[in-house]
């Protein structure tokens, strides 16, 4: 498939990630972070271009049961309960098969406790029958504080406990965990030595990795080993308004305008007021981000990977000029802004690939401010907020606005802070007419105002 | 002396292997652990090579070397008997000397990572190292290799021990016998890293050449990268074939960069390459190209499925794209000179440097490590970077490595390094190799600048 294809429109990823689809199976007692890991991993894989979907068996159970009464449902001697749970797992696996074999998915994350060897055996057989590779992700944790924090963060708000008060919910949940404990058979170094898995112990203090068989599993392991749950915030913003921004020109490497410099000062004040512990600051290697950071008066690190998207032959042009000189290209870009690559330049898809090490390092870090560019910020934001490839190139990332992202529960809280310094608008929405034959007017319909 | 442009100076202030900003604030001491013939030196050398290539100054310190310098002539395994007090003293002194050199490397030579390659099989020895590191403010990361598969160990001994200076005058059976006794000397007192008692340490345990890994307390970015690297390398025999695309139209005109197709001779080469590959009778060969026409056209002739990597694209010459060297000299004489002054770090305006190239090729290298038989059809600068990785060439040599057109390099890992076989496929091509001229001063004459430009139409 990847062999003799023409470069332009292929979803060409670096390597064929997966020849056969991969089934990732979580393992662990309740409140060990399985769903957190599943969602995060799914988000990451989709962002780097590997179609991934998670299947949470608890969801299936809620759809089947409608009303959750109490932990008694999970008692190992509750025959009726067991029957329903088994059905739910089967139903979920059917959907997995549909996704991987029919819908073109590449990775499915099967999120359930899967705490018995028997259950895992069933899954392995299912995978073998369907030609899926299996990779287990087990989370083992006995730290009561971590578990309690987990329950507070994600269980109290669960549909199961909507009608309970916190104490009731916690008590019930602890009993629920107990129901699984007696029959829990963790992955065993000897008995399960032929399986591919990673065992995560104590929220990432220790990992046991067994039989990684291919590239995607290797990447998954690397990712899992870099994420953490220490509370922190990520601040994203663009450089201050630049001279080329004012002229409505894209790309280039110009310095800050007067208002841009003003923004840098406001940014400094904002950061000071936030009172952040051990803040790291990253910029690209372009003048405008560096000048913005210089104003902060703190050390910063420059990443070439954070440079703005390379617009190739269109560098430093206004949209009007692009329409004049490259009307075809301009239309093609509007047709598929994510995959479109400027001649001698890059696409958003390329950007994502070069930003992947930045994301990996962002995961390792704690409090951090990233001063970057419009397209770059869109890519980073899409990662944190789980935006699709079609939405990504149209995310709103205005100048002089800081986004504060704080991981919470299964997602990310976003606070948008406009720092009160005027600037041009650089956001060009997708115009209605994306046809290559369109008129100049139609093409330029959504170009923001500039000098 | 000409000062580099202030902008460029500032740009180089922060780490230039861009994706990994502050690798290490404090230096890192990597400590190998394991019985003899468990691959410690193999891992040490490979890891050192990788870290240097990605721009982290790293050096390995093999305590066996120090012992050979101290003892001059190796008699037999009795030297390693745990009750041999004299030998124990010497061995301790060697370890201490090596640690002293580690310290000098960090403080005087700006090293960032040191790999301390020795058995370090006792808790006591490891404690000495830990307290040494603590005192000096170094981070410590242990790499323990555990293997009890007799076949692997025997293979290991054959590959690297027979050729060792210790056994240079011995016949194979004698050497094998002695080495096995040597291993036994260590085994009695071997205490592996303890997952309970040593839970505060940072380490990775590698079981059975990578079938299983136990990773504990990764502290920082560099340790995370090291773990990722170690988990991707393997020892399965295989070969890596590196070749440039066939001669291109722009090559003929002496123009750099661009995205032209193959010349007639280039097409001939593509066919010759296909024939060569067939003759090599390789199992499961993967073929990789860049996204540029000339590599794709070359791979097409080979007739097997190939994968395209944008990361394998030729170095972006920015404003100099598609120019001849004469035109570069005419239009950008200062840039031309700056490039000759520091070809590795020099970045074309709106383009890339070799240093940038290495950074973007890192995922390619990582995947090459995972793979088995691979043919990479790429470009001159790209091939120089890849070759430098496999052959452990430093940054100043890298941009001048010879990678002529129409020549396939076959790299086969053996022992601690890489065997290289060069195959010129007998199709003439222009020479695209420009040596560093004698005069690199920005005030030089055009003549001097163009002194080493190869011929073209």
UniProtKB/TrEMBL annotation, chain A:
Keywords: ATP-binding, Hydrolase, Kinase, Multifunctional enzyme, Nucleotide-binding, Phosphoprotein, Transferase
Signal peptide residue numbers: none
PROSITE patterns listed in its UniProt record: PG_MUTASE
Domain of life: Eukaryota
Pfam families attached to this UniProt entry: 6PF2K, His_Phos_1
Residues binding substrate: 238-245, 288
Catalytic site: 239, 308
GO molecular function: 6-phosphofructo-2-kinase activity; ATP binding; fructose-2,6-bisphosphate 2-phosphatase activity
GO biological process: fructose 2,6-bisphosphate metabolic process; fructose metabolic process
Domain (6-phosphofructo-2-kinase) ranges: 17-231
Any one Gene Ontology cellular component term annotated for this protein: cytosol
Family listed: In the C-terminal section; belongs to the phosphoglycerate mutase family.
Name this protein carries in UniProt: 6-phosphofructo-2-kinase/fructose-2, 6-bisphosphatase 4-like isoform X3
Species this protein is from: Stegastes partitus
UniProtKB/TrEMBL annotation, chain B:
The organism's place on the tree of life at top rank: Eukaryota
Single GO molecular function: ATP binding
PROSITE patterns: PG_MUTASE
Keyword terms, alphabetized: ATP-binding, Hydrolase, Kinase, Multifunctional enzyme, Nucleotide-binding, Phosphoprotein, Transferase
Signal sequence range: none
Single GO biological process annotation from the record: fructose metabolic process
Any one cellular-component term (Gene Ontology): 6-phosphofructo-2-kinase/fructose-2,6-biphosphatase complex
Domain 6-phosphofructo-2-kinase: 18-237
Keyword NAD tagged: no
InterPro entries: 6Pfruct_kin, 6Phosfructo_kin, His_Pase_superF_clade-1, His_PPase_superfam, P-loop_NTPase, PG/BPGM_mutase_AS
One family name in Pfam for this protein: 6PF2K
Catalytic site positions: 245, 314
Function: Synthesis and degradation of fructose 2,6-bisphosphate.
Assembly with partners or alone: Homodimer.
Family to which this protein belongs: In the C-terminal section; belongs to the phosphoglycerate mutase family.
Protein name: 6-phosphofructo-2-kinase/fructose-2, 6-bisphosphatase 1
